[in-house]
Structures are given as structure tokens and as C-alpha cells.
Design a protein that fits this description.
The longest helix is centred in the middle third of the chain and has 29 residues. Helix content is about 10%, strand content about 40%. A hairpin with a 5-residue loop joins strand 48 and strand 49. It is mainly beta. The relative contact order is 0.05. InterPro entries: Cadherin-like_dom, Cadherin-like_sf, Cadherin_C, Cadherin_CS, Cadherin_N, Protocadherin/Cadherin-CA.
Length: about 1200
């Protein structure tokens, strides 16, 4: 037993010694300092070196660290003995208590032997935390009565960092009312107080939004913000106010308990509880009053609380106090007097003294409608009466004097809601019990225009199929107006809007009475696709009210346009003829049919088909692009002429189509294939190509020589026919039959020619009208300007008879007095337009001696009657109008004159309706009915309309009205406003035409033909063609008139395979308009070789054989003889001709041979001379003479060759112009 106790003792000693050793070992502490948030793997220190341990024994001795807070932040590298970071350490997490230092204590334990080392690691703070406020928004309620300088505590920001990294200061956003003051707590923390710098005013600004920023002292500094929302609290600074200071209420006795006496209303300008009002009695209100009437403290209603007895109290006075619920409550007060009326036994009586009915519904408020008097036979209180009407009526009764009351309008009236009122006026006396009487009056309201017309919809979409009939009904657009009579009568208008210079009223018409919308013209989808305009509905009230709505017209497409074949181009109905080589290869493009359709996309899709094909195995047609190509090569069995009829169909229902007929002719080329040439033996052929050309040339020149010799003989054998001499005459113009003189009107029949000449001079007018037999000559002489038209006589053929002036005298109408002493009108009718009034002096004379007399003058004024028809200055007006005029342009002023007076003189102008292609004249032209100004309502296009002929009527306003009309001829003048349209070769807009031609093409071959059309007038539509660009000017030529492009030579090996030609087509307008087309030509090699290439093969004969030599000699000889003959003929013709005796002396006469035409004569005169320019056109030549001669001289004109210019006259020959001056 003792042994066991000893063993236990030693065991305890051993343990104690062991722990003592451990305590001695741990008594020393190793200290390290590191910043927080170090990266993982960062080395803190070499622990083995610091502890004096052998690195090699660390693994064997199982060196380890204890775990802190269940996490292992550090570890030891047993290979190197280094202490390194295993996980990032956050100082604020490890040391939750905010102290200046933060330590981590760890133990390092090793075994064999066991040793424990104490390690202390200090975590140094870094600025890794942002200041944060406990609340993101700080709400403060500050009364508007708070004085300046008042402080308000704000919650401070928190920064887990310490020292300089903690919060350093605060900032407040700029404002006028608040500032901050920074305070420092005992623990060094910073906080801010909000200081009111300026008093607040809730009425100006009810809240203030501020930003408070907390900034720490770290580098770089971090900051956090919080919003300060200051709500300005209202103060109770406004007292409640009653509507009135005092109320007087009449209340009959025995009023039912709970009946409302009066409802008081008080208002408070404050808000919230400061504006909530409590009603109460004041101390000055008697207990009896408070017992009799109840006061609702919330709404201010005073009601009967108990039975009222007139005998007890007749008047109840009370003072009501309205108190708000503010902290410092304010109050207002008013006085209420309740008068109790007594009951009686006599019925009161009502008498209507005045009553106005009907009245307009817009009668002003407070207007007196009726005056009512009331009476009661009782006396005292029982004789006093109260009068009232229903509270549901917009009327009120107002006392005007004792027992008289006015019935007033208390609210605006509306006839559309209530057309009339039955007003029952009830009168009740104040007796006990009260007796009453009533009277009912009916007030009728008259309508005023106070309602705007309303359409059921504000936007209408109306589809209209194109090609509609003019005048077709499109829709009925009806508005509603609840007013009556004329205020309800609506008139519909189209609000004017121009589209492409066209007014909407020219396209659409609306029935002003029922709103039916009509189309005035036939619409074409290809021109107009939609219209957007407004329609206004206006009532007939005063002033009128109106509203409008939007109409969207959508034109629907129909398949109404036939395809138009633009290539190959041809005149209407003609056949296209093409020539193609017979050696054309398979797949060669023969022609391309191009058609266009102006319908919509669906209807305009074109397909091409053969309507007729002479040989279906020879040609193919692409149904989509219209290309016609060969399906095989031509054989000897194929006909030389092929006819193709192509039909182009659109995609509409039903489909429309157009056809083109193409006649193809195959021609042999001048080239032979190499295989053909090898079959021909190279022996000598007499009639080679050169022989043939020489024979043809010799025959042609010989024929020309014979013709020239024959013409020369005929000219020499002719005898000159002497012209007949013109007899002497003064100032005459002599012309053979079939002649035409300027401004002359010629009418022919079997026996006579009639001619009218008109010449203008400064002194007179030359007019001659002369019937003469066929073949006779004309005689013209000068007459004074005042002379009219006369016919010449046979006795004085050379002189024009003068017509004397006729003077018309109008005598005054006579009046006479008879023995009966009555005034009689004379025998002539009166005419106010000639003499508007007469001063008639009546003289009376007695028969005494000496006779005495007296007179009296009376004025007779004539009243106008409508006896004169309006007269236009002309009966026919021709008005030229340039196309593309502006709509509304003034064309002319057509004014008639009516000599009547007043309404008989007032004229109204009308266009007499006439339809042209379903279009009324009033849709094209407008005339001002007051002054006759004629306007164009649309823009005219010369290419569509060239002229208009219609009548204008002028009608006076008399009874019955008289009228006359005038014819107006509108001529549309052309402008060069259409650009030439290139129809061949056809191409899409802006694209390039590409063509392929054989490189072996001969000189003069037609490559392409440009065809352009212009829809302007003849002058403006003349097209000329020019090259705008030509790659090689020596290779291609362009005919400026027909647009044909031909080769000027054959292609050589130097010429490019690709040629580009740009052709411009210009019209003849001013300025000229043009269109261009670009043609790209590509040359391709054929399987044929030219004859020139074949010349490389040696020939077995000589080109210039004996036959060829003889042919060349004969051709040269005949050509030389031809030149000699032409030269001799010219010499003979140039010899001086003998003077003609055909024209004897005649002073200043003009003689023209038969079949001559004298035209474009211009006559100008001055005091001394007549100037005349004649231009004569004959079959043989042109006659032009300009000769100043004295007045009265005669002209002699004869034919001269066309090539001859202006010459002076001589006496040598009859073919020369003779001018001689005659002396008077």
C-alpha cells in the first residue's frame, strides 16, 4: 500500500516538473507586426531562425501552430521554417473591440522534446473601410417658426478603422438655410450638428433635401454620404374664418326635431391638424339656446334639438366659435340669430306681377325672371309670410321690398338638359300652424348656339376604287349638334389644301346640307394614291361654331393600264422589221421585247408569250425577260422570212395585253467560211467582184452623161415667153391668179377670186376688197384712215371710193300745253339713259294788251327700268394661257357695261356650264361674280389640254333680269417642260445597254438606233442626237436626226474589244432638255474569216486582167465626157440674158407670175415714204424685195431664182424687180 502511494507521488512530481519545464519554455514571447489584408502566401518571418531551431528537424519534430477562432490564418513552411499568410486577416473582424492595438497570440508546438513557443502578432490597421452612416436618409421635422441658430443633432458616421483612418470631418451640400458644426466626442469620434442659419418658410419651400458627407483621414481618403430630408412643419398662424360674421335664420315654430337650421362653414388656411376645425357654442350663448338647438362640432350643422314654441322664445341668439386643432389653437366666431315665426289660420296669397317667358338659355346669373308679391290678411306675426321655391331649381328668390320678391337665376341654364322649368313658388305665413299657398309658372328656354357640332369619329379612312365615275358618292360624314333651329342646321365644308397646285375643292365636293362626300373627278391610282384633308361642320348660329375631322382617301388600284411595249419601238400598229445573218449561231439574241405597265406592283408583272411563231423549232422566247433567241442554226430548208408575234400580258384580273409583230429577214453575208473557200477552185473567174463593180460604175456614169446632154438640149431649145405688160396705174399691186398677199383672205369659186387687203400707215388705213374674174389682177390704192370698206367700180378701177361721215342728231323730246291745260308727253318715247331728267318750263300768257305772262318750271325725273341688256366690248375673247400656270392665276377681266341704274346696273357673271370629258367648266375656271375676273382653278398641261371654248354670261339684277353672253377661247401655250424619253434601246432607269457585235462587221453597218420621243409641241419636240462620249471617234458615226449609229470603218486588231458610247438626245426648246443613254459594245470573234484574211491564200489569176483594164479605161473616158458637158452647160447659163420687154413702165407696181405666193408682207409708213417688205415663194425660186419708195409709187415684182439673194432692181430684164417713182 505504501509502495503504491510512493509511485503516485513520483508520478505527480514528474508531471509537475514537466509543466514547470513547459512554463519556463513559454515564458519568452516572439513579437511580429504585420498590416492587415496581406496577400496569401506572404512571408511574415523565418520562425525557425528566430526561435533558434534547426530547419532540418522541423518535419521530424512535428512543428505546428494552434488554430485561432476555428480558422487557420498562418502556417509554417517546414522546409524553410518561414511563417507565411495562409488566409487574409481583417483587423476589424479579429479585434471587434475598437482599440488602438490588435494582437494575435499563437503557440508553436514541437515534439521530441516537447517545446511550446509563444508568438504575438500585431495587426496594423490600413484604410480599407468607407465611413458609413447608420441610416442612408435622415428625416428631420422642423417647424417654420424655429429661430435661426437652432441646432439639430445628426446621426454620426461609423468607420471601423482607427486612428487617422477613422472619420476626420463632415461636409454639407450648399444651401441657404442650413450649416453644420463638427463636434469631437470624448473617445475622439467626430459627429456633426445641423445649424439653422435662416428662418424657414413652409409656404415658400415645404422641404429641403441636403447631402451630408463624412470623410476619413486615410490616404487616399474615403467618404460616405447620407441624405438629410428636412420637412418644414406648419405652425398654426391662421385663425378660422366664417363665410359671414353673422347669420339670420327664419324658423317656423314646431319645426321637426332634427331639421337643419343652418350649416355654418369656416375655413382655415393652415394645413393638417391646424386646419381641422371644431365648432362650439361660446359662453355668451344661453343654456336655453343650447338645449333647443344642437351644433355638430365637426361640420357646423345647427339642427332642431327639441320642440320650438313661439310663445316661449321668438328670437334665439347664439355665438358660434370655430377652433382649430393646432397646438396653440386659434379661433374665429360668428353670430347666428334664429327668428321663430308664429302659426296662423289665414292662407297667404301670391300674385305674379311680372313674368318673362321665354328667355334665352344663356341668361346671366341674377337676372330677374319674375316679380312676385305676397300678402296675408292676418296681423302681427301671423301676417308675416315666407316665400320659397324648390332647391332643385336653378333659381332663387330675393326680396326687393316689403312683400315683393324677385325670382332670380341662381345657376347657369342649359336648354339641352332641361328645355323648360315648372317653377312652383310657395308662400307660407308665420302663423301657428302655418298656412301656405303656391303658384306654378312655366319658364320656357330659348336656344342659343352654345354647342359645337360633333362628328362620331375624328378620323375617317375611305377606300375609293380608281376609275370611279365623277360625282360618285364616297361616304356620308354627318355631325350632330344638340341645338335647335338655325343653331342646329349644319353646313359642311372642305378645308382648302393644295396638292401639287390643285385645290381639294377641285377634287372632292361635299353636300353642305347632309355631309355626303362626292368625287369630282375620276382618280387614277397611277397618278394619285391617297389624299388627306379636313372637313369642317359649321352651324348657322351667331356666332357660328364649328369642328372638323380628318378624311383619308385611299385610291385602290385596278388593272386599267395595258402593257406598253417600249422595245423594239415602232409606230402605232406598225410592224418591226429586222435583218439577221443567215449564219447566226444557236442561242444568238435576235430581239428583246420590253413592256412596261404603270399599274401597281401586282398588276404590272409582265409575262411574254409567242402568239404566232412561223417555226416553233427555230426561236425561243423567255417569258420573264422577253429575250428572243435562236434554238438552232438556220438550214437551207428554213424560209428567208420569219414572222413572230409576241404578246405581253400583265398579272391583273382580267389580264390586259399588248402585241408586237417582228418580221425577220435572213441575209447572206459577204463573208464565206474557210471551208466554203476551200471548195472553190482557184481558177480564173471572169466576173469576179472587181469586174462587177467596174461594170456597174461604167453604166452609172454613162447614164448620167446621157441625162446631162438631154437636159442641156431641152434648155437651149426653149423659147422665152414674153410676160404680159401691166397697164399703167397709180399705187397698184398686180398679181396673177393663185397668188396670196399678206394678211389677205382668199375665197375661190368658179367665176371669181375675192381678196381683202389690210395695211396700216400713220395717216390712214389701206383696205381693198375687189371681185375680179379668174386671171385678172388686183388693184390697191391708199385711202384715209377714217374711210370705211367700199367696193371699187369699173369706171375708176385705180381709185378707192371714200365713204362720207354720217352725223346723227338726237332731238329733245317736245312737250306742249293744250287748251285743256293738261300736260301731254310728246310723240317720242323717253329714254333715261339719254336724258335722265327734264326741266319743263310752262308759260301762261293772257290775251290782254299788253299781254302778261307767268311761268313755272318743273323738273321731271325719269326712273330707271331694266330695258338695257348688258353689253361686252367684244363678242369673242381669245385668251392665251401659258401651261404650268399657278392655280388661282388671273387670266383676264371680262367686264360688261349696263347703262341702267342701281340693281338694274348691278351685274353678276356666270360660266355657262359645259362638260369636257366628264369635267365641268366650273371645275377648271372660276369667274368673280362681281367684277368678271376670270381665274384658272388648276394647272393646265399643254400635252393634255390644248384649248377650251365656253361661254360667260353677264346678268343684271333687274326684274325681269336681262343677260348677254360672250364666247371665251382659252388657248394653252406650250412650254418646254417634258424631257425627251428614250424608248429604244430600252433599259431600266439609269442602267447601261450592253450589245455584242461581230468583230468582222463591215463599214456602214447599223449598230444601234436611238429613238427618243418628246410629248411637247412640234417645235419643242424636235429631237437631235449627239455623242456625249465616244471611245473611238473614227470608228462610229451618229446621225443627228434619226439616231442611227453606224460603223465608219471595219474593226482592226488595234481597236479595243470594248467600246462605250454615250448618246444625248436634246429637244428644240428653250432651254433645251435632254436625256442620255449609255451603250456598251463588245466585239466577238465569229467562225468566219473576212475576205481580206483569205487574200493570204495564193490566187491563180491576176486581178488586173485585160477585161478589167478595158473597163477602167471606159469608166474614165465616160467620166471625163460627163465633166466636160456639165462645164459647157454652166458656161451657157452664165451668159448675159437679153432684157425682157414684158414689163413696161409702171410706177411702183408689183407684178407676180402665176403660181407665186406673196406672204409675210409688212407695211410701215411715215410722212414721206411707204416701206414694204415682200417675201414670195414660187416653185422655181424665192422673191425678196425691200424697197423704200415715195408714197404713191408702184411696185413691179417678178420671179427670181431661189438661190438669188436680195438685189436691186434694174431696167435690163423682166426677171428683175422694177421700181419707178411717179411724180404727182
Amino acid at each position: 500500500m505504501e509502495g503504491w502511494e510512493m509511485s503516485q507521488f513520483w508520478r505527480y512530481v514528474t508531471v509537475l516538473m514537466f509543466f514547470s519545464a513547459i512554463l519556463d519554455t513559454a515564458s519568452s514571447v516572439t513579437h511580429y507586426s504585420i498590416p492587415e489584408e496581406m496577400e496569401e502566401g506572404s512571408v511574415v518571418a523565418n520562425l525557425a531562425s528566430d526561435l533558434g531551431l534547426d530547419v532540418k528537424t522541423l518535419s521530424r519534430r512535428k512543428m505546428r501552430l494552434d488554430i485561432i477562432s476555428n480558422k487557420k490564418y498562418l502556417d509554417i513552411n517546414k522546409e524553410t521554417g518561414e511563417l507565411y499568410i495562409l488566409e487574409k486577416m481583417d483587423r476589424e473582424f479579429l479585434c471587434s473591440v475598437k482599440t488602438s492595438t490588435c494582437f494575435i497570440k499563437m503557440e508553436v508546438i514541437i515534439e521530441n522534446p516537447v517545446r511550446i513557443f509563444n508568438i504575438e502578432i500585431e495587426i496594423v490597421d490600413i484604410n480599407d473601410n468607407t465611413p458609413q452612416f447608420r441610416r442612408d436618409a435622415i428625416h428631420l421635422d422642423i417647424s417654420e417658426s424655429t429661430a435661426a441658430g437652432e441646432r439639430f443633432s445628426l446621426s454620426n458616421a461609423v468607420d471601423p478603422d482607427i486612428g487617422s483612418n477613422s472619420i476626420k470631418t463632415y461636409y454639407l451640400s450648399e444651401n441657404d438655410h442650413f450649416g453644420i458644426e463638427i463636434q469631437t466626442g470624448r473617445d475622439g469620434s467626430k459627429f456633426a450638428d445641423l445649424i439653422l442659419k435662416m428662418p424657414l418658410d413652409r409656404e415658400k419651400q415645404a422641404s429641403h433635401n441636403l447631402i451630408l458627407t463624412a470623410v476619413d483621414g486615410g490616404v487616399p481618403a474615403r467618404s460616405g454620404t447620407a441624405s438629410i430630408i428636412v420637412r418644414v412643419l406648419d405652425t398654426n398662424d391662421n385663425a378660422p374664418q366664417f363665410d359671414k360674421d353673422s347669420y339670420t335664420i327664419n324658423l317656423i315654430e314646431n319645426a321637426p326635431i332634427g331639421s337643419l337650421v343652418v350649416k355654418l362653414n369656416a375655413t382655415d388656411k393652415d394645413e393638417g391638424s391646424n386646419s381641422d376645425i371644431l365648432y362650439s357654442y361660446s359662453l355668451y350663448t344661453s343654456e336655453k339656446t343650447q338645449q333647443t338647438f344642437s351644433l355638430n362640432p365637426d361640420n357646423g350643422e345647427i339642427r332642431v334639438k327639441e320642440m320650438i314654441n313661439y310663445e316661449d322664445f321668438r328670437i334665439y341668439d347664439m355665438e358660434i366659435i370655430a377652433t382649430d386643432k393646432g397646438a396653440n389653437s386659434l379661433s374665429g366666431k360668428c353670430k347666428v340669430k334664429i327668428l321663430i315665426t308664429d302659426m296662423n289660420d289665414n292662407h297667404p296669397e301670391i300674385s305674379i306681377k311680372s313674368f318673362t317667358s321665354p328667355v334665352k338659355e344663356d341668361v346671366p346669373v341674377n337676372t330677374v325672371i319674375a316679380v312676385v308679391s305676397v300678402s296675408d290678411k292676418d296681423s302681427g306675426e301671423n301676417g308675416q309670410v315666407d316665400i320659397y321655391i324648390s332647391d332643385d331649381l336653378p333659381f332663387a328668390l330675393k326680396g326687393s321690398s316689403d312683400n315683393y320678391y324677385e325670382l332670380l337665376v341662381s345657376e347657369p341654364l342649359d336648354r339641352e338638359k332641361v328645355p323648360e322649368y315648372d317653377i312652383t313658388i310657395t308662400v307660407t305665413d308665420r302663423g301657428n300652424p302655418p298656412l301656405s299657398d303656391n303658384e306654378t309658372i312655366t319658364l320656357e328656354l330659348l336656344d342659343v348656339n352654345d354647342n359645337v357640332p360633333q362628328f362620331p369619329q375624328t378620323f375617317y379612312t375611305i377606300p375609293v376604287m380608281e376609275n370611279n365615275a365623277p360625282g360618285a358618292l364616297l361616304s356620308s360624314l354627318t355631325a350632330i349638334d344638340p341645338d335647335l333651329h338655325e343653331n342646329q342646321y349644319l353646313v359642311y365644308f372642305i378645308i382648302e389644301k393644295e396638292i401639287v397646285n390643285t385645290s381639294m375643292s377641285m377634287l372632292f365636293s361635299i353636300n353642305p346640307e347632309n355631309g355626303n362626300l362626292y368625287a369630282l373627278k375620276t382618280f387614277d391610282y397611277e397618278i394619285e394614291k391617297e389624299f388627306l384633308f379636313h372637313i369642317e361642320a359649321r352651324d348657322s348660329g351667331v356666332p357660328p361654331l364649328s369642328s372638323n375631322m380628318t378624311v383619308h382617301i385611299i385610291i385602290m388600284d385596278q388593272n386599267d393600264n395595258m402593257p406598253l411595249i417600249v422595245s423594239p419601238w415602232r409606230a402605232h400598229g406598225s410592224v418591226v422589221e429586222e435583218k439577221i445573218p443567215r449564219s447566226t449561231d444557236k442561242g444568238t439574241l435576235i430581239a428583246k421585247v420590253i413592256a412596261i405597265d404603270s399599274d401597281s406592283v401586282h398588276n404590272s408583272r409582265i409575262k411574254y408569250q409567242f402568239l404566232h411563231n412561223t417555226d416553233a423549232t427555230l426561236f425561243s422566247l423567255d417569258q420573264y425577260n422577253g429575250e428572243i433567241r435562236t434554238m438552232r442554226m438556220f438550214s437551207y430548208r428554213d424560209s428567208r422570212h420569219q414572222q413572230l408575234v409576241v404578246i405581253a400580258k400583265d398579272n391583273g384580273e382580267p389580264a390586259l395585253s399588248a402585241t408586237v409583230t417582228i418580221k425577220l429577214s435572213t441575209v447572206e453575208t459577204a463573208l464565206k467560211t474557210y471551208a466554203d473557200m476551200t471548195e472553190v477552185p482557184l481558177g480564173y473567174d471572169i466576173f469576179s467582184d472587181l469586174n462587177l463593180y467596174l461594170v456597174i460604175g461604167l453604166g452609172s456614169v454613162s447614164f448620167l452623161l446621157l441625162i446631162t446632154i438631154l437636159v442641156t438640149i431641152v434648155l437651149k431649145c426653149q423659147k422665152t415667153k414674153p410676160s404680159k405688160a401691166a397697164p399703167p396705174c397709180r399705187n397698184s399691186v398686180i398679181s396673177e391668179r393663185n397668188s396670196t398677199i399678206a394678211d389677205s383672205t382668199l375665197v375661190s369659186n368658179d367665176a371669181y377670186w375675192y381678196s381683202l387687203f389690210l395695211a396700216e400707215t400713220r395717216k390712214g388705213k389701206l383696205v381693198v376688197r375687189q371681185p375680179v374674174p379668174k386671171g385678172a389682177r388686183y388693184i390697191v390704192s391708199s385711202i384715209p384712215r377714217s374711210t370705211g370698206l367700199t367696193e371699187t367700180s369699173d369706171s375708176a378701177a385705180s381709185t378707192l371710193q371714200k365713204t362720207p361721215m354720217v352725223i346723227i342728231s338726237i332731238a329733245m323730246t317736245d312737250f306742249q300745253i293744250s287748251y285743256r291745260r293738261k300736260v301731254h308727253k310728246g310723240s317720242e318715247p323717253l329714254d333715261r339713259e339719254k336724258v335722265p331728267e327734264y326741266d319743263i318750263t310752262i308759260t301762261v300768257t293772257d290775251r290782254g294788251n299788253p299781254p302778261l305772262s307767268d311761268n313755272e318750271t318743273i323738273t321731271l325725273e325719269l326712273l330707271d327700268v331694266n330695258d338695257n341688256i348688258p353689253q361686252f366690248p367684244q363678242t369673242f375673247y381669245t385668251i392665251p394661257v401659258m401651261e404650268n400656270n399657278a392655280p388661282g392665276a388671273l387670266l383676264s377681266s371680262l367686264t360688261a357695261i349696263d347703262p341702267d341704274l342701281h340693281e338694274n346696273q348691278y351685274l353678276v357673271y356666270f360660266i355657262i356650264e359645259k362638260e369636257i370629258v366628264n369635267t365641268s367648266m366650273s371645275m377648271l375656271f372660276s369667274i368673280n361674280p362681281e367684277n368678271g375676273n376670270l381665274y384658272a382653278l388648276k394647272t393646265f398641261d399643254y400635252e393634255i389640254e390644248k384649248e377650251f371654248l365656253f361661254h360667260i354670261e353677264a346678268r343684271d339684277s333687274g326684274v325681269p333680269p336681262l343677260s348677254s353672253n360672250v364666247t371665251v377661247h382659252i388657248i394653252i401655250m406650250d412650254q418646254n417642260d417634258n424631257t425627251p424619253l428614250i424608248v429604244s434601246p430600252w433599259r431600266a432607269h439609269g442602267s447601261v445597254v450592253e450589245e455584242k457585235i461581230p468583230r468582222s462587221t463591215d463599214k456602214g453597218t447599223l449598230i444601234a438606233k436611238v429613238i427618243a420621243i418628246d410629248s411637247d409641241s412640234v417645235h419643242n419636240s424636235r429631237i437631235t442626237y449627239q455623242f456625249l462620249h465616244n471611245t473611238d471617234a473614227t470608228l462610229f458615226s451618229l446621225d443627228q436626226y434619226n439616231g442611227e449609229i453606224r460603223t465608219m470603218r471595219m474593226f482592226s486588231y488595234r481597236d479595243s474589244r470594248h467600246q462605250q458610247l454615250v448618246v444625248i438626245a436634246k429637244d428644240n426648246g428653250e432651254p433645251a432638255l435632254s436625256a442620255t443613254v449609255t451603250i456598251k459594245l463588245s466585239t466577238v470573234e465569229t467562225a468566219l474569216k473576212t475576205y481580206a484574211d483569205m487574200t493570204e491564200v495564193p490566187l491563180g489569176y491576176d486581178i488586173f486582167s485585160d477585161l478589167n483594164l478595158y473597163l477602167v479605161i471606159g469608166l474614165g473616158s465616160v467620166s471625163f465626157l460627163l465633166l466636160i458637158t456639165i462645164f459647157v452647160t454652166i458656161v451657157l447659163k452664165c451668159q448675159k440674158t437679153k432684157p425682157s420687154k414684158a414689163a413696161p413702165s409702171c410706177r411702183n407696181s408689183v407684178i407676180s407670175e402665176r403660181n407665186s405666193t406673196i406672204a409675210d408682207s409688212t407695211l410701215v409708213s411715215n410722212d414721206a415714204y411707204w416701206y414694204s417688205l415682200f417675201l414670195a415663194e414660187t416653185r422655181k425660186g424665192k422673191l425678196v424685195v425691200r424697197q423704200p419708195v415715195p408714197k404713191g409709187a408702184r411696185y413691179i415684182v417678178s420671179s427670181i431664182p431661189r438661190s438669188t439673194g436680195l438685189t436691186e432692181t434694174s431696167d435690163s430684164a423682166a426677171s428683175t424687180l422694177q421700181v419707178r417713182t411717179a411724180t404727182r
